[in-house]
Amino acid sequence: MRVALLGPTTVVAEDGTPVDIGGARVRMLLARLALDPGRPVPTTTLIDDLWGEQPPADASNALQSLVSRLRKVCPVSLEPGGYRLGIATEDVDVFRFDQLRAAGRLDEALALWRGEPLADVREAPFAQVAAAKFDEARLAAEEERFTTGELDAAALTAMHERHPLRERLAGLLMRALCAQGRQSDALQIYAAVRGRLADELGVDPSAELQQVHLAALRGELGPRAAVDRLPVRLTSFVGRDDELAEITGLLGQARLVTLVGPGGAGKTRLATEVAARHPLHAKGRVWFAALAGVRAAEDLAGVVLGAFELSFGTGDPLRRTGEGMNRIADVLGAGESLLVLDNCEHLISAAAEFTNELLRRVPNLRVLATSREPLAIDGESLCPVGPLAVPDGQDDVSAFGAVRLFLDRASAVKPGFQLDESTVDDVKLICRRLDGMPLALELAAARLRSMTVRQITQRLDDRFRLLTSGSRTALPRQRTLRAVVEWSWDLLTEEELRLARRIAVFPAGADLAAIEQVCAEDSLYVLTSLVEKSIVDVVELDAEPRYRMLETIRVYAAEQLEVCGEKQEIVDRFRRYYRDLTGRWEPLTRTARQVEAIGVYEAEQDNIVAALRGAIDDREVGLAADLLAGVFWYWLVKGDNERAELSVRDVLALGDGLPADVHATFRAMQLIMAAVPGLPATAEAAQVIEDCVSSGAADKHASLAIALPMLAFLSQNQELARREVKRAAASEDAWARAGADWALSFILVDEGDLEGAEVARDRAYEQFVAVGDRWGSAMTLGMKATFVSHTGDNLAAIALYQRGLDVAMELRSLDDAVQQRWRLAVEYARLGDHATAEREVIEAEQYVRNIGNDQMSIMIDYAKAEVLLRAGRIAEARELSSRFKRRATLSAVLGSFVTEWSAILDSRIAIADGDPAEAEKRVAVAIGTTSQRSDMPDLATVTELLAQVRYAQGRHESASRLLGLAAVIRGRLDMGDPDMRRLVAELGEPEPLGIAKAEALREVREEAGISDS
């Protein structure tokens, strides 16, 4: 939410929708609170500021009434210190104006003004003083804009006429007139201002205005073309707007600003752009010294003199350095100056001494340096220059700096190239794989002269051969990607080289402990030196720091690791380290330290995968099995089922070298994962379960406490499922006992014992909470919500789904969070709150887009179709149903469920559309698949749907019978479904049938026209 006071008082919601605030007094209250956003304002202050000396008789109640009205549209809370408007400072345009002004972004700041400040609340006692303060700030900002930019004589004249006594403004106008050659007009302005000051205030002009007058008299302010001594800018400047503002601000405060970052980050171009936009550039007081070609420290002064178009005479080199420093100081000391020292890293000590001496001798000098490490002298302000922003799963990527730069350079070499469906995935991949580094992106874009964007992405693994098409006029070390990296590599000491090439083994970076165990003991000081030299980045400084290389540097370092013959030893250490790490953390993924464990796995994911894939590829059977066992449960909790399934397959393919218990465990997990979308064969599942028991795996691996009973249950072996539940329930592991009750609830539901299932679920939930397992808690809450909904208590079900969602979000379990969220949306629709249902499904869509999970987005399509259908938007639901079928048919995850889910959705659409014949055909398909799976809850749902079809056909007796059959199959009707509530209201409660579930199943199939032959 944003509040605007620089004009009439307005409020805009987060999505850009204007908010109706209410009457004048409510707007006054909002405006006053917005002057202290996020801070409580005392009640007495508010009363004084709103009513002044004539408050109402019961001022406190009057204020409370205003607050109540304001709360309907804005977040206002009562706190010990008073009433607080719960928005951030930057969400109020007054404070946004101050921030932009302080950052030098004056055009943006002034663009916030929409008229007179507080225009519609000026009657409030506080408004006049505040408005006057804002007006003064606006006028000062307008003056500052002219101070730092172009002097517009016409605009300054208009401002001067409105404010004839502002001396700073008069001085700016005089400068502007002199720049146009209108010296006499400028002198007349001075005379007029001096006269008015004397007549109206009895004072003389300020010293500043008198100096402008004197300069005008001397002719020093006449038109003059500034000399541009900066490198020629032949390409557009893209993607560094924030850095430009930051560096501009730093240069306003510090005399030395150093841009530090790796090679290819664009430090030189950024420094050039900053210098070109600096006010001193228009005055001809900016110089640029390129140090890349300097090889000896004593030549540094000569290069800077060359930037001044001066040179040494002859004589001793050491004496020439002192002479050169004197001449440089003379030139720079003639006025305010800015000197850019580009590429200091290879002369870092000499550059530091030179800069320190120069800043000491020339007080009005500012230096902007670029280097791969800081100069490390007093007063230095650092601005890290890293990669451009890279997209990470977002749909709209056009605003990311890396994408913008690539498109800009691509369109220059290949006119017509644009971001569309055919190119967006490749462009995102290029930006991500090249770390968003400007030079690499420019080299990749240059390849479009002779290659397609797809050909470029296919060759990124060979990036040093691919990216060799730089500008012929660039420095040699900037013409190829390899040359850029080699320039940095050659500046390292032997000790730094050894550690740098070894760190390449970590694709996801590492903390100090990992680096010291895998690469070298006592590495901290060498590591920090690599950070200083922009070879290694450091992240997460608030917690345990992690150190990582940009991908391009890591690829080069990995080459060096292989060349020096150390690769095998370091890789072996790396794999063993992650075997031990996952072995320590895996048991904790089912305890109260679960979130902490998830954090470790998230940070180390790519390292663990690299260790596992390497062990599989090298057929290190034991190591591969240990690594997979250490990470498998984390993948299941996070919903990374595809990676888990592929890894299990590859480890099982290693063959007889796997221990019997390991083979049995992974085979059981393989069958469980294959159970969706297909059911495991009864005999095969039973054999795998027996293998797990006989090999001791069932006692060794806690995850089998859930996996084995569920595998037996899904393979329709109730007796074996019961046995395995009993085995798990007798375990010494509290989590395994919770898993036993969780699995038992499925069995009891299938048997129609809903009360027993509820008891088992509650027991499982209590035990999962007791051991601290959020995953088990979230799953159990979701199950409880489904069955509470069947009782007709939609609100209680919503509360449970929301609790499950909160737990899943805390756990960062992406799939579980999506499932809880879309079920929540559907439950709101079942309740009849269609607006909230639609908001929830939109949030689910946005969440899925953010995490980039295409499979889950298919499920969201299905949920959205149901939400729209229940809101009566049949045509939209039908369109989404068609899209769901198109996309889901290609999904390996949904498999045979596509047919079933589509049939259910299309049947509901046909009923809503008044076409019961079509609905009957569709629901028969769903009854066929659910009955084949013997999924009793799902079969009950489609039986209820067939009852609705029969009712729509006018066959009321048949509909009533089907309701009774559904009650037998599930144990109760789904009274949380408004369609079922209406149907029961029409037909009455079905009579208890007193038949077995198997008979009910046979009768339902027969009613649907399905033959058992």
From TrEMBL:
<protein>
    <submittedName>
        <fullName>BTAD domain-containing putative transcriptional regulator</fullName>
    </submittedName>
</protein>
<feature type="DNA-binding region" description="OmpR/PhoB-type">
    <location>
        <begin position="1"/>
        <end position="99"/>
    </location>
</feature>
<dbReference type="Pfam" id="PF03704">
    <property type="entry name" value="BTAD"/>
</dbReference>
<dbReference type="InterPro" id="IPR058852">
    <property type="entry name" value="HTH_77"/>
</dbReference>
<comment type="similarity">
    <text>Belongs to the AfsR/DnrI/RedD regulatory family.</text>
</comment>
<dbReference type="InterPro" id="IPR001867">
    <property type="entry name" value="OmpR/PhoB-type_DNA-bd"/>
</dbReference>
<feature type="domain" description="OmpR/PhoB-type">
    <location>
        <begin position="1"/>
        <end position="99"/>
    </location>
</feature>
<dbReference type="Pfam" id="PF00486">
    <property type="entry name" value="Trans_reg_C"/>
</dbReference>
<dbReference type="InterPro" id="IPR027417">
    <property type="entry name" value="P-loop_NTPase"/>
</dbReference>
<dbReference type="InterPro" id="IPR005158">
    <property type="entry name" value="BTAD"/>
</dbReference>
<dbReference type="Pfam" id="PF13401">
    <property type="entry name" value="AAA_22"/>
</dbReference>
<keyword id="KW-0238">DNA-binding</keyword>
<dbReference type="InterPro" id="IPR049945">
    <property type="entry name" value="AAA_22"/>
</dbReference>
<dbReference type="InterPro" id="IPR011990">
    <property type="entry name" value="TPR-like_helical_dom_sf"/>
</dbReference>
<dbReference type="InterPro" id="IPR036388">
    <property type="entry name" value="WH-like_DNA-bd_sf"/>
</dbReference>
<dbReference type="Pfam" id="PF25872">
    <property type="entry name" value="HTH_77"/>
</dbReference>
<dbReference type="InterPro" id="IPR016032">
    <property type="entry name" value="Sig_transdc_resp-reg_C-effctor"/>
</dbReference>
